[in-house]
Design brief:
340 residues, mainly alpha, 0% strand, flat
């Protein structure tokens, strides 16, 4: 029972952290709207760097931006490949919560590999005469005027929207729970202080964003689409590892079949979904797998980033996935065999 309570507590803490970080990334993204598109008009080397940087930023927003640029003809085939190599989806937030130093190092490596992979992919596309989807450049994606700071919204109190009340209530309960030690660490250590401070910042954002931003960006996208998935995948991954280590020789099985785990992580990364990669994140956090397996999985998988591209062109999406799978094995397998 204590193990289950610990798993629930850790899952809640990680989910809170992920929610706050996703909110902050989205908030900053809206504040700096339009700057990246202007920067892309400077040759392929700049495209590679920007696409890989966007991909390496935590979450799926960078990948979504890359897809938007690609379908408007602003990125080459290699650049979108590099962006997806660098992308590690919502799991990036979980990695920052569990092992921040290793996570930042991983993001830096993925950024560099994204640039290298982008250049190779464009050369391969030229060699094999791979032409990016021509229809993509004709797509017109509607970009609604959006801002994220409107403190006058509180003047509407008490006639606030239901999502705003729901978020305020949840944040209040979490702040009280963390303050009393019911949720998270029992003492006022750096984790508890950080979590409490981040929730106060979140409360400020929820209080000052306009209704459109609250409903479309926070409620519909982050809360309804991502948050429950992050919690469930985190909970079941932790549950599997906790009880696997206690009642089954999970560590012995993994160490005896490490090459099989390597191949599985690469194949699981093909799934265009945030979540399946979480098990490898948790395994690495518990010291069950080496860095090379986490890196391989991160190269192949791209969270939800590929889903919008599938709606535009299945052919390009499949080619990107195949290239990233081969690239991940070429990079990851030697590192794995060398013991990294």
């Amino acid at each position: 029972m204590n193990e289950l309570s610990s798993v629930v507590n850790h899952s809640v803490m990680i989910t809170i952290f992920v929610f706050v970080m996703m909110l902050l990334v989205d908030y900053i993204n809206v504040l700096t709207k339009g700057d990246m598109e202007k920067a892309l008009k400077g040759g392929r080397s700049r495209q590679y760097a920007i696409a890989s940087f966007l991909g390496a930023t935590p979450g799926c927003l960078g990948a979504f931006a890359n897809v938007s640029f690609y379908v408007h003809g602003l990125l080459s085939f290699g650049a979108i490949v590099g962006g997806m190599i660098a992308t590690s989806g919502d799991e990036a937030f979980v990695m920052l919560a569990l092992f921040p130093k290793e996570a930042v190092f991983l993001f830096a490596v993925l950024f560099i590999l994204g640039i290298i992979g982008a250049r190779i992919a464009d050369k391969a596309a030229s060699l094999f005469k791979i032409v990016p989807c021509q229809e993509c450049t004709l797509q017109k994606v509607h970009e609604e005027e959006c801002h994220c700071f409107e403190p006058e919204v509180l003047k509407k109190f008490p006639k606030l929207s239901l999502p705003r009340y729901a978020l305020f209530s949840s944040l209040f309960i979490l702040l009280v729970g963390i303050g009393m030690g019911i949720v998270g660490p029992q003492t006022w250590n750096w984790q508890r202080i950080t979590l409490f401070s981040l929730l106060l910042i979140t409360a400020f954002i929820v209080a000052t964003v306009p209704d459109h931003y609250l409903k479309e960006h926070i409620w519909k996208h982050i809360v309804k689409k991502h948050l429950w998935q992050v919690f469930l995948w985190t909970f079941f991954s932790l549950l599997f590892i906790t009880f696997g280590l206690q009642y089954w020789d999970l560590e012995g099985f993994i160490r005896a079949n490490m090459i099989l785990v390597f191949l599985i992580c690469a194949l699981v990364g093909i799934i265009p979904e945030s979540g399946p990669h979480m098990i490898f994140v948790m395994m690495f956090a518990n010291g069950l797998i080496p860095f090379s397996i986490l890196l391989t999985s991160s190269i192949v998988q791209d969270g939800h980033g590929m889903l919008p591209l599938f709606s535009y062109t299945v052919k390009d999406s499949v080619l990107i996935k195949l290239f990233n799978l081969l690239f991940a094995i070429v990079i990851g397998l030697p590192l794995f065999l060398l013991g990294f």
